[in-house]
Design brief:
By secondary structure, the protein is α/β, with parallel strands linked by helices. The protein has helices at residues 9-28, 53-71, 83-89, 95-116, 128-135, 158-168, 191-195, 199-213; strands at 2-5, 42-46, 78-82, 139-148, 182-189, 218-225, 231-240. The chain contains 8 helices and 7 strands. It has a 4-stranded mixed beta sheet, sandwiched between helices. A 3-stranded parallel beta sheet has the order 1-2-3. It starts with a strand and ends with a strand.
Length: 243
Amino acid sequence: LVCIGAGGGTGAGGGPIVVEIVHDLCKTYGIESADTDARVGAVVALPTRAEGSKVQSNAKQTAEVLIDSCEKGTLSPLVILDNERIKQIYPKLSVNQFWATANTSICSLFHLFNKIACQDSQYTAFDSADLDTVFSSGIISFGAVPVSREGETVEETAISYAVRDNLKKNILANIEVSTGNVAACVVIGDRQTLDNTAQESLEHGFEQLSRLLGEGSTVHRGIYHTSKKGLVVYTIIGGIKAP
């Protein structure tokens, strides 16, 4: 993964070149898959409006180069992080909180899906092949929404509402997630909460995601237990059209 701050000269000018170099290294060392030569991804951060028109112009050109590589199948996944949306969603954040929120909102979810894909589940497993399918799909979007806290009962429609909110309340670029064609939905909760949650409620959530994506889409599922109390729904949407 190449992480790029797209507004300044170093990131905007050097980012796509670094992607090309890393891509060549992957080919040289044989790190590529059977169906595509993309084994390089990127996380690109767009500037806020306050950073000025020149910075925005730099970011736009950089994003277009990366999106073009993504559409050609030589860059995947591509995560487009919008710092302006962080300002809109969390208007009162301090300086330290602002950047911590921007970074952990992406990194922590990326890390979680990576870890989950290596673990077994006594319920339904989201495995490394499922993860590879999503990460190879181009532009992706993450989401995470708590469904219940400790001791709370999970209502029948709560999970489907959480899936819907997942797709609206994220800090990624203003993308239309309904254009995606592949997704993962992972539900993680403590044993007691899972024991008290009807399978039908989980199915409602998975079906909601399928309906949002439309015909011909694939939704990978995962159900895991943890010691942390409550229930959280995590999603990745892939194959999204560029904003």
